[in-house]
Amino acid sequence: MAQKYFADQFDDEEVLFVFRKHPIVMRRGLILGMLAILLGTIPALFDPRYSTYFIGLAAGMVLGLLVYLPSWISWHFSVFIVTDRRLIQITQKGLFSRSVIDMGLNQIQMVNYEVAGLQETLLGFGTIMMQTFAGDLVIHEIPHPAKIQKKLLEILRTQGVSASPYSEPPELEMEEDERKN
């Protein structure tokens, strides 16, 4: 029996690729955590002793960690798993809420990406857009979206799924076939 990498993995299913969102998604928790640490140093303004400063700083660090922890948990436990059969999107929302999207690879029609704006360009993240039979799946804040798109397309091709980064209307495809004949 093969090793299972996640709870819902089938016995004969192979994990091909795992990725998660860019760490930038934790920015709000990081900023609030840093403000909590700064808040812990305020008592030293009124009682300027080393003990007051270090006790306040320690309390601020504990508070900062507690404020930052939910952001980290949401980032760390939100993953995208590509197996030889399906794409699974596990999204952790806070501490006690999780959603799972499970889609067969043969349902994916098209995979595109977009990097828009200065922040996305400088920090190297963007958006992956997948057109499927069930609708569009848009995944924001993905690191190196061009590399991930390329990897996804390679996996789809090796699994025999015909997905392209662009799509031509069926009329154009028929016209091209007629010209070739």
β-sheet strand percentage: 25-35%
Evaluate the radius of gyration: 23 Å
Determine the mean pLDDT: 86
Shape: elongated
Structure description:
By secondary structure, the protein is α+β, with helices and mostly antiparallel strands. It is built from six helices and seven strands, in the order βαααββββαββαα. The chain has helices at 27-40, 43-46, 50-76, 118-123, 145-158, 170-180; strands at residues 15-20, 79-83, 86-93, 97-104, 108-114, 125-132, 135-143. The strands form two sheets. The protein has a four-stranded antiparallel sheet. Helix 1 (27-40) runs antiparallel to helix 3. The longest helix has 27 residues, at 50-76. Residues 167-174 have low confidence and may be disordered.
Describe the SSE topology.
Elements: E1 15-20, H1 27-40, H2 43-46, H3 50-76, E2 79-83, E3 86-93, E4 97-104, E5 108-114, H4 118-123, E6 125-132, E7 135-143, H5 145-158, H6 170-180
Antiparallel strand pairs: 1-2, 2-3, 3-4, 5-6, 6-7
Helix pairs in contact: 1-3
Question: What's this entry about, in short?
Answer:
This protein is of the alpha+beta class and 181 residues long. It has six helices and seven strands; from the N terminus they run βαααββββαββαα.
Q: Key features?
A:
single chain, 6 helices, 3-stranded antiparallel β-sheet, 4-stranded antiparallel β-sheet, 181 residues, alpha+beta
